[in-house]
């Protein structure tokens, strides 16, 4: 391997697995590994497994530190990216002020940067996915909560220590309670959790709705797909749930567009399997509600395309900034 050809190492630390990859300058993954995260262990043990994974992949590809730009890592929780510190993370064993970047740097002898996993996924889409043709993007991840990342001029917009929290912007004052303690957050309406909550409530209020049959009589079977399926089959109750979900999602996205005015808005997360069932009404919503839309067309809303590796790819490119 010529030392002039710099490769990037990405790590995606999740609650279940530590994924590690070596990538070329285009974002292509040349080698990849995955080991269990063992999330409840002390952080040093997890960091030591990350170090072993990186070393094993480098050995497999016969690389030295000189061949690599460095290591980027995405991690859930509140990250102080500038100082490389995991400020707080309750997915793991109550991590507080963990000096992760320094620990990895000392062991690997390479530059290390860390960022929030949602940020890394947004950057990954800009490197190799649906935002490849754009230099600025806001990505919103619809999952258990609502996460997101902002990429500006090809770089992550990190904000100050702790980073941006797109999901915890209020779209309905005194609205539904949010996991963060406020009321009416974007997350409290646009997460998959919120969609499931509203679909269950609608099914209970309307025993005649096919939402009940699709759950086979047990509303614990409700998921983010069933309300879309029921609506498409003509169920008016389900259609109302979907309309309201799209409206609230549209409100939140309109705010993001009015604040950042990115070139593209990306959606990721399980709900996005709905594809055009989301993007068509959301683009219409933005065309109606984004500031000055009649004179200046708002950016398109698209579905993220990279999938599970977006976080790994984006992490590897944290070092490119
Ligand atoms: Zn909140």
Rg over alpha carbons: 21 Å
- Mean pLDDT, rounded to whole units? 94
Count of discrete structural domains:
2
| Structural class by sheet pairing and helices | alpha/beta
**Strand portion, in percent?**
15-25%
Question: Would you kindly provide a written description of the structure presented here, covering whatever features stand out?
Answer:
There is one protein chain. The protein has 2 domains: 7-129 and 309-320, ATPase, nucleotide binding domain (Nucleotidyltransferase, domain 5); 137-304, Nucleotidyltransferase, domain 5. It has 10 helices and 13 strands. The protein has helices at 43-60, 100-108, 117-128, 187-190, 192-205, 210-214, 226-232, 236-260, 276-289, 310-316; strands at 7-13, 17-23, 29-36, 68-75, 78-80, 85-89, 95-98, 112-116, 137-142, 146-152, 155-156, 264-268, 301-303. The protein has a 5-stranded mixed β-sheet with strand order 3-2-1-4-8, sandwiched between helices. A 5-stranded mixed β-sheet has the order 11-10-9-12-13, with helices on both faces. It has a 3-stranded antiparallel β-sheet with strand order 5-6-7, covered by helices on one side. A hairpin with a 4-residue loop joins strand 5 and strand 6 (85-89). It is globular, with a radius of gyration of 21 Å. The site of zinc ion (ZN) has 6 residues, from loops.
